[in-house]
Amino acid sequence: MREKAASLPNVQMEQGTVTSLLEEQWTIKGVHYKTKNGEELTAFAPLTIVCDGCFSNLCRSLCNPKVDVPSCFVGLVLENCQLPYANHGHVNLGDPSPILFYPISSTEVRCLVDVPGQKVPSISNVEMASYLKKVVALRNCVALLLPIAIFC
Question: What is the per-residue pLDDT for 63?
Fold first, then answer.
């Protein structure tokens, strides 16, 4: 993408690390940035595109109001499970949130569990397994269309 942009006659390429956006009356006018040599510069442009990844400090400043993340989906692949209606998705309006099931192969079913809150339980320790067993499976065991053992 850089190569294509650089080939255009009205594009001037500058490389550096953006430290902040220049904002004027809710409009981004340019950026402050540092070069590889540590020199601090300012660049102005009629169009500024912020594309610095999911851990961007810049994108957060562009959201007004701040974005609230009420929940996240956690996915599991369940093997050798049978859904009540073959080749169909299933929704369980469970407690505390929905659970989706749909086939992804002849022997596998994807299960998406909506986990409420800003932070997802960690999978590196027992938090996620504990949440799935104690919250999702126990509260929904009667309503679940699949055997409870899939969550163990």
Answer: 67
Tell me the two tokens of residue 8.
């255009």
68 vs 134, more confident: 134
pLDDT the model gives residue 98: 87
**In sequence order, what E strands does the chain have?**
17-24, 27-34, 40-44, 71-79, 90-92, 99-103, 108-116
**Residue with token string 């320790």:** 125
Quote the pLDDT of residue 123. Answer: 84
* Cα angle value 57/61/67 (rounded, 5°): 100
How many residues appear in the chain?
152
Sign of CA dihedral 60, 61, 63, 68: positive
CB 129 within 8 A of CB 110: no
Pairwise CA distance, residues 138 & 130, whole Å: 11
- Whether residue 114 has pLDDT greater than 80: yes
Burial label for 8, CB within 10 Å (0-12, 13-18, 19+), is: exposed
Q: What pTM, to 2 d.p., does this model score?
A: 0.51
